[in-house]
Amino acid sequence: MVQWKPMLYGVAFLHSTVQERRKFGPLGWNIPYEFNQADFNATVQFVQNHLDDMDMKKGVSWNTVRYMIGEIQYGGRVTDDYDKRLLNTFAKVWFSENMFSPEFSFYKGYSIPKCTTVDHYLQYIQGLPAYDTPEVFGLHPNADITYQSKLAKDVLDTILSIQPKDSSGGGGETREAVVARLADDMLEKLPADYVKERLHHMGPFQPMNIFLRQEIDRMQRIIALVRNTLTDLKLAIDGTIIMSENLRDALDCIMGFQHSWLLVY
Fold this sequence. Notes:
Structural class: mainly alpha
Strand content: under 5%
Largest sheet: 2 strands, antiparallel
Number of strands: 2
Distance between the termini: 61 Å
Helix content: 55-70%
Order of helices and strands: HHHHEEHHHHHHH
């Protein structure tokens, strides 16, 4: 069947596009969807079944193909309205009778090859540019700046994260000693737990007091979390308890003054 190979190649190119757009972050997709091989396999199976059951006189039902791809097979994962619109646009532009035309191309230099064997397809694919411009995936060329900046930041963050964390020579304090001293200092400055019974004397059902109680509950969760984390961290540094992953993260973050405590509030 002459429609099978071009449509299969079109599904493969669409799958590559939705995957590659993820690396551009919010510029590619508003939400990073987990497109995977199962989506590709399901779409290929649908196309094969549709062509097998197709009425040769009527030809391919493109409305059905576009709907299944944009709304069901790949679109079933998409929750954002603009992402759904983008996916349906890909399906509308690429999947039509035009894809069988010799002039059809996904982008300049990216057409559907007319091959007879798998090896010929592989040779054609290997002849494509080693680096794909963002325009191939429907993005502005400047999207590559964002991607390269993020990639450089991730590389630098990884390099910094694997640097030795103990102080070297000179008789200076070790990293653990510095964190233990900072933990003691923070524990001394940490306020005592709130006494919420005082709110009863202020009128617990007054609108402002209800709001105050909610804020107190939030602050109390933070105070309790900070106190427990610092106490356990000191015990872990002394070797009394095991240094868990959360405590190790707390040790790293105290040196950088960042921690998940910020997320609690």
